[in-house]
Automatic annotation (TrEMBL):
Protein name per UniProt: 4-hydroxy-tetrahydrodipicolinate reductase
Pfam families, sorted: DapB_C (PF05173), DapB_N (PF01113)
Keyword annotations from UniProtKB, A to Z: Amino-acid biosynthesis, Cytoplasm, Diaminopimelate biosynthesis, Lysine biosynthesis, NAD, NADP, Oxidoreductase
Subunit composition and interactions: Homotetramer.
Binding positions for (S)-2,3,4,5-tetrahydrodipicolinate per the UniProt entry: H144, G153, T154
Encoding gene, per UniProt annotation: dapB
Length: 249
């Protein structure tokens, strides 16, 4: 069985990963909270991650935490030579650079969304934007009221996919007198209740509207995808990997 360490183990996704671990074993978790254990999994402070990776003989780290915590644990993975699956979102340019540096030393797989449906959605969006060249584009995402980063990592990834096809300028929310420019894409983030994660791209023009959307119904979908990615990553060469590599395998 793959021996997994979970970064952010006391969080919503940490719990979902422990629950989804059937073909793998969560042997230790990292979190900044004072808790000693969660669901029988010992909790260690991220500053002690390198020692814990050795002590618990960890094969791979699965991370759903905060950018600062992910980077601390990535450094520990480099020190000990352990692969890492990064699910945390909201990295700035410097943080992304540090993850890329880590991937030169260990296998590192980063995804803003570990659902297979989002992989397919991104491919459909790429085709639709390429084909419907003059249509207006508007991107919406909705998440639970505890989410701290906006727009979501997934929405940012979808925007990257769109920008590979078309030179659009994102406008984050609109307010006041704000006439739409032809080359803009509105990006909207809503936060309410316990909504797991919804993303929608609307393409409108030529007397028609195409809506491409995805809704996650349970955090289990992200947890299962991340654990699949973790099992796939063990034994690979150092480098930068993406979830599409796992889905296509
Ligand atoms: N890639 C994907 O498929 C998904 C990504 N996410 C992302 O995962 C992250 C966590 O999401 P949730 O579990 O909902 O958040 P949460 O707030 O419930 O949990 C965050 C966890 O990080 C821990 N933490 C805080 N500071 C830390 C540090 N310095 N070092 C290590 N751990 C630290 C907290 O103690 C907690 O355990 C977010 O960035 C979210 O956007 C969430 C769902 C799916
Ligand atoms: O914070 C969440 O919950 C989620 N975060 C990811 C994101 O920022 O895109 C993925 C998913 O939508 C859930």
């Amino acid at each position: 069985m793959t021996r997994v360490a979970v970064n952010g183990v006391t969080g919503q996704m940490g719990g979902a990963v422990i629950e989804a671990a059937i073909d793998s074993e969560v042997v230790v978790g990292f979190a900044t909270s004072d808790t000693d254990a969660v669901d029988g999994v010992p909790v260690v402070h991220p500053a002690e991650a390198a020692a814990a990776l050795r002590e618990y003989d960890v094969d791979v780290v699965v991370d759903f935490a905060v950018p600062e915590g992910a980077l601390t644990v990535a450094e520990a993975c480099v020190e000990v030579g352990v692969p890492m699956v990064v699910g945390t979102t909201g990295f700035d340019e410097d943080g992304m650079g540090r993850l890329k540096d880590a991937s030169e030393e260990v296998p590192l797989l980063k995804a803003t969304n570990f659902s297979q449906g989002i992989q397919v959605l991104q491919r459909l969006i790429s085709e639709a934007v390429e084909t419907l060249k003059d249509y207006d584009l508007e991107l919406m995402e909705t998440h639970h009221n505890r989410k701290v980063d906006a727009p979501s990592g997934t929405a940012s990834s979808i925007l990257d996919v769109i920008q590979e096809e078309r030179d659009v300028e994102p406008v984050y929310g609109r307010e006041g007198h704000a006439p739409r420019e032809d080359d803009e894409i509105g990006v909207f983030a809503r936060r309410a209740g316990d909504i797991r994660g919804e993303h929608e791209l609307v393409l409108a023009g030529n007397d028609e509207v195409l809506s491409l959307s995805h809704r996650a119904e349970d955090r289990g979908v992200f947890a299962a995808g991340a654990l699949d990615a973790a099992a796939w990553l063990v034994g690979r060469d150092a480098g930068w990997y993406e979830f599409g590599d796992v889905v296509d395998a």
